[in-house]
Design a protein that fits this description.
79% of the residues lie in helices and 0% in strands. The protein is mainly alpha-helical. The longest helix is centred in the C-terminal third of the chain and has 47 residues, at 113-159.
């Protein structure tokens, strides 16, 4: 694992907008509570603060919901159709179909770089496991082929009448040795 990973930092303009909405909500909440207190009378100071905070929080939540409704579709489309997540999801689809030769490039200061690196590592590990599996199957089939060919040859030879009883017994005694070699390969 790399030690030089950069932490994700949200873009400055997003932080400024969020902070501005929060501060603006608090100010509007305070002003609305003052306006409300002009009609109802001002309660104790602690209640005044609590009511101001609650009004400010409600305004902030309403504004956050409105911003999410307005800009959420844009961000969703950008992230899932054009961004690094789209490439990562495409790579995962290829991996699920058995294509382990995939690689997704990371982007600078992207919060999903860790996910991308894990997908790349998974693809590499699966690729090496697939190669080991294919090598194993190839080796096993080669190891089994020779004894089976021998056994088949002995069986064909024993079917013929060209052998004497003594030769036939000799070949019958050899057959279990071949079978023993096959059993030892397991």
């Amino acid at each position: 694992m790399k030690n030089d990973k950069q932490k994700y930092h949200p873009p400055l303009h997003l932080m400024i907008i969020s902070f501005s909405v929060l501060v603006g909500s608090c100010i509007v909440g305070y002003k609305l509570s003052e306006f409300l207190f002009n009609f109802t009378g001002k309660p104790a100071e602690i209640w005044s603060y609590i009511i101001s905070c609650l009004i400010g929080f409600c305004i902030f939540m309403i504004l956050a919901h409105l911003m999410q409704q307005c800009f959420g579709k844009f961000f969703h489309k950008y992230i899932f159709e054009h961004g690094i997540l789209k490439n990562t999801m495409d790579a995962i689809d290829k991996i699920s179909l058995g294509d382990f030769n995939v690689f997704v490039n990371t982007e600078r200061n992207n919060p999903f770089n860790d996910v991308v690196e894990k997908v790349n590592k998974m693809a590499c590990e699966l690729s090496s496991m697939e190669k080991l599996r294919q090598d194993f199957i190839s080796n096993v089939s080669r190891e089994i082929q020779s004894p089976l060919t021998s056994i088949n040859g002995f069986a064909e030879l024993l079917k013929t009448d060209a052998l004497t009883q003594e030769e036939r017994m000799h070949y019958i005694d050899i057959k279990p040795l071949s079978e023993l070699r096959v059993q030892n390969c397991r």
